[in-house]
Design the sequence.
């Protein structure tokens, strides 16, 4: 089975940097995704990591350490529109399914 | 390009009623999924399909049935709705060929069972 943990809520200031952590336990790791979800809307894809290291995409970066079962999402130059929930999701080795197991999400509030 | 379309967007049912949620995707994706999202619990997989004519159970399949008669459509049925099935339901699809490609989500169906 899989277990994914991430903080429930975080608060940060506009223009600052925030790091959202995700730890996971899985029987067979095959990729980690980060999604952004604004209230009342669908999740939208942010990043994907399958190898150790940092993936950078504009203001967003995601890091993975497979040996530690750990990932983080780094958001730079925070904007008010970044207030949303951020979902960490892990895919297991059963590629025939390609389904994701999601964490409960971290609700980020960006303050002026 | 519509992506993933879910109908209806909102629905209120009485306990014991039945209904079908429709998901349609126009990206020619092989894989399709139904999730439910409840406060504090994240997205949980109900059923999924790896191709036309195939379906399989996810984490929380009880009380639901699915069908994938056409590649582009994935239907989720509630035979006898219960208040515990009040939730937001999301459909998603993904490509078989590209492992890096994410799942694409529909806008959700908000279902209340009274």
Sequence:
């Amino acid at each position: 089975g899989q277990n994914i943990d991430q903080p429930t809520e975080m608060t940060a200031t506009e223009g600052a940097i925030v790091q959202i952590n995700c730890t996971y336990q899985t029987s067979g790791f095959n990729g980690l995704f980060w999604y952004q979800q604004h209230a009342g809307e669908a999740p939208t894809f942010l990043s994907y990591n399958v190898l150790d290291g940092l993936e950078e995409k504009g203001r967003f970066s995601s890091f993975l350490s497979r040996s530690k079962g750990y990932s983080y999402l780094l958001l730079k130059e925070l904007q008010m529109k970044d207030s949303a929930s951020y979902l960490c999701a892990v895919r297991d080795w059963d590629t025939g399914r390609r389904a994701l197991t999601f964490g409960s999400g971290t609700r980020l509030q960006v303050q002026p | 390009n519509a992506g993933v379309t879910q109908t209806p967007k909102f629905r209120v049912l009485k306990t014991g009623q039945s209904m079908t949620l429709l998901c349609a995707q126009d990206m020619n994706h092989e894989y399709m999924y139904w999730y439910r999202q409840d406060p504090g619990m994240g997205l949980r997989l109900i059923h999924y399909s790896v191709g036309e004519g195939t379906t399989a159970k996810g984490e929380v399949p009880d009380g639901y049935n699915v069908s994938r008669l056409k590649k582009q459509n994935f239907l989720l049925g509630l035979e006898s709705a219960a208040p515990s099935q009040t939730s937001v339901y999301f459909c998603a699809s993904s490509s078989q060929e590209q492992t890096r490609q994410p799942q694409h989500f529909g806008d959700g169906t908000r279902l209340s069972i009274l």
In short: Chain A touches chain B at residues 4, 8, 30-31, 33, 35, 41-45, 48, 50, 87, 89, 95-105 (CB under 8 Å).
